[in-house]
Amino acid sequence: MTVPAHRRPGRLMEGFPALGWGEPMASEFDELFSRMNELLASAAATGPGASSPLADMHETEDAYVIEAELPGITREDIDVEVDDQHLRITGEYKKREREGILRRSTRRTGRFEYRALLPTSVNAEEVKAQLADGVLTVTVPKSQSAKPRHVEITGG
User: Fold this and answer.
1) What domains lie within the chain, and their CATH numbers?
2) Which residues contact 138 (CB under 8 A, 6 or more apart)?
3) Which residues face 126 on adjacent strands?
4) Which residues are CB-neighbours of 60 under 8 A, at least 6 positions away?
5) Mean pLDDT, residues 81-103 taken together
6) Which string of b and e fits 33-56 if b means at least 16 CB within 10 Å?
7) Angle CA(129)–CA(45)–CA(84) in degrees, nearest 5?
8) Interatomic CA distance for residues 144 and 53, integer angstroms
9) CB within 8 Å of 85: residues ≥ 6 apart
10) Engineering a disulfide at 134: which of 27, 37, 71, 126 sits with its beta carbon 3.0 to 4.6 angstroms away?
11) What are phi and psi of 81, to 5 degrees?
12) pLDDT of 49 over the 60 cut
């Protein structure tokens, strides 16, 4: 996967003929490219030899919920880290001890890593993770500033 070159703020429109967009539009493109670079970097960030588990992320009014498929993994073999806008789930599929000769194997072994860039700031102190039936469910509450707030309109 190719990650776009990093651009310096205010340099995106340099060298292009004036399109009548002005500086505000150029700064919006700079911000868009910056977010795209973060997203692509997080998607390409799995380490060498690491796989990424299948996962879904959906948003509720109060939180982001990530459900990752991790069959056969114990909770001691999983690490979940969250900061302001990033989620990282890492661990290892361990080889099973067996008797006899292994004739065929299609099961994964080795390190895995799942990374997600969350769209808004989150409350990292209130994150909850639960492992049940081979599915890790991580609930990441949104920060108070990220939640929509209803504003009452008064007569004037």
Assistant:
1) 1-44 (no CATH), 50-98+106-146 (2.60.40.790)
2) 65, 66, 67, 68, 80, 82, 87, 89, 127, 128, 129
3) none
4) none
5) 87
6) beeeeeeeebeeebeeeeeebebe
7) 50
8) 30
9) 117, 118, 119, 120, 121, 122
10) 71
11) -125, 140
12) no
> Tokens standing for 86?
């990033």
Structure tokens at 71: 């069959």
Three-state secondary structure call for residue 63: strand
| Residues making up the chain, counted from first to last | 156
70 vs 67: CA distance, rounded Å? 9
Token pair, residue 68, equals: 């990752």
Are 73 and 91 in contact by the 8 Å Cβ rule? The answer is yes
**pTM metric for this prediction:** 0.62
Count Cα neighbours of 31 within 13 Å in the Cβ-side half-sphere.
Answer: 6
pLDDT digits (tens, 9 = 90+) for 20-41: 555 666 777 777 887 777 766 6
